[in-house]
Design a protein that fits this description.
- The structure is a single chain.
- With about 475 residues, the protein is mainly alpha-helical.
- Helices cover about 80% and strands about 0% of the residues.
- It contains 20 helices and no strands.
- α14 packs antiparallel against α18.
- The longest helix has about 40 residues.
């Protein structure tokens, strides 16, 4: 087990670290307002993905016929059609989107970004199929190499342009390289067909993911649209960079956890006891991911911003702890979503994201009334917390998953976040503090340790896999 885990985590970590370096470099080199414009490129791409996300890559991993070349060809044809339509949509909405955000001068850039979904549409699915066999290197190549090329282009692009176009062309280069590497890393010849039966299966599997993609767009980009429109590009830049620093690390591990556990959960979906054991380990692994994120941001976040990004991003420092708590709760939901996906309950994540999407109206109203970024983040955190409770309820109700296996861990993790929320309130909102921050910090440490000790399912899973590995090697 250790080798594929290390490959997944290190591959995802290095590629995401490279993209993080890219974003930090661009933020350091160009103005804050230009970085805000650059951040809207990701929003424009997310709009298109939102309208066309069917989870076809997950389907080839989860489906029992995933090794069938005919299914792969059909899914690749469906993906090509989807990508082409997405590109046309992005080209059409470029004008109204730029005008909504108050930056009509970059309409041409959004239109050029329409090439990216078309490129993604012709990705070779073999790199996903191989994950069924616990072979992850081809997939890692398709995310690592394009990210590296994208970063290496930053310096020459900055010399040429020195503004938001640096990010634009870096993203385009990454899309081209992702397409090329997916074909070079594949082990089967690329074929695509437009098979109506396979497309209907894809729609049946993916329609809840399509709806969830709409909600996910609102979750990850809704506040950015609100802030960009109501508070301006500079405030959007602070929020976008805060998201980058606090969400990227959790997504790295969340993707690794899904890629590692989903094939095993899918293989055990007809064995309830084994499925529940692996499912509990999956939920606990995602909770651990969120806890580590909050602890890391609290310890090194401010120093990192001051050292790497410089004085122009210091106004972001008070936001970091609140964003870390927000994204910790968000990643907590990833565990139940993966377990549900293994049983083809693709709409569980959709219902869990509904609260965050609905909270955008409240956030928009708050900004109109003059409230700032911290209040927007608090509103989103409350919505994510409600979504986490719903995700656990659905896991029990629809799949019969025994929540007692993860109940203590979830409760302690939420207690840890609650204490850290209080710690942030004491340090930032009370001058002078009514409570010594050392007390709240100490309580958080104790709860962190207790939460780790309660993760018996994850610990047992690791020990069992290690024992089996030693037996095979012996």
């Amino acid at each position: 087990m250790l080798k594929p885990v290390l490959l997944l985590v290190s591959g995802n970590a290095f590629s995401s670290l490279i993209l993080l370096v890219r974003n930090l470099l661009v933020a350091r080199l160009i103005s804050v307002e230009d970085y805000g414009i650059a951040a809207t490129f990701a929003v424009s791409m997310a709009i298109v993905e939102m309208m066309s996300q069917l989870g076809l890559q997950q389907m080839i991993v989860q489906d029992k016929d995933g090794e069938n070349p005919a299914l792969q060809a059909g899914l690749q044809g469906f993906q090509a059609l989807r990508g082409t339509i997405s590109g046309v949509i992005l080209f059409v909405i470029a004008d109204p989107l730029a005008r909504f955000l108050g930056i009509p001068e970059v309409i041409w850039a959004y239109q050029l970004m329409a090439l990216v979904p078309v490129l993604n549409g012709f990705t070779h699915f073999d790199v996903f199929r191989l994950q069924r066999q616990m072979i992850y290197l081809p997939f890692m190549i398709t995310i690592f190499v394009p990210a590296l090329i994208s970063v290496l282009l930053i310096w020459p692009l900055d010399r040429l342009y020195g503004d938001y176009r640096v990010m634009l062309y870096a993203v385009l280069a990454q899309g081209v390289m992702k397409l090329l590497t997916s074909h070079l890393a594949a082990r089967q010849r690329y074929r695509m067909t437009l098979d109506r039966a396979i497309m209907m299966r894809g729609l049946g599997f993916g329609w809840p993911l399509l709806v969830n993609s709409l909600l996910l767009f609102l979750v990850l980009n809704g506040e950015k649209l609100v802030v960009g429109r109501e508070l301006g590009m500079s405030q959007l830049a602070l929020l976008a960079m805060g998201f980058t620093l606090t969400l990227t690390p959790t997504l790295v591990l969340a993707r690794s956890v899904q890629s590692f556990f989903l094939p095993q959960l899918s293989a055990a979906q007809d064995e309830d006891e084994r499925f529940n054991n692996i499912g509990a380990a999956t939920v606990e692994a995602n909770i651990l991911n969120g806890l580590i994120q909050v602890a890391a941001v609290a310890l090194i976040g401010p120093i990192f911003v001051q050292t790497v990004l410089g004085p122009k991003y210091e106004p972001m420092i008070p936001l970091l702890l609140w964003l870390a708590i927000l994204h910790a709760v968000r990643v907590f939901k990833a565990g139940p979503a993966v377990v549900a996906l293994a049983r083809a309950k693709t709409d569980n994540a959709m219902w869990a994201n509904l609260f965050r999407a609905a909270s955008l109206a409240v956030s928009w109203y708050a900004t109109i009334q003059g409230y700032g970024l911290i209040v927007v983040i608090w509103i989103a955190t409350i919505a994510e917390l409600l979504g986490f409770f719903v995700s656990l309820y659905l896991l029990k109700k629809r799949i019969g998953f025994p929540l007692r296996r993860v109940g203590a861990t979830a409760a302690l993790a939420l207690g840890f976040l609650g204490v850290y929320f209080g710690h942030g309130w004491v340090v930032q909102m009370q001058q002078p503090p009514m409570i010594d921050p050392r007390w709240t910090g100490g309580a958080a440490v104790v709860l962190f340790i207790l939460c780790l000790a309660s993760m018996t399912a994850l610990r047992g899973f690791v020990l069992r896999r290690r024992t089996r590995g030693k037996r095979r090697n012996g």
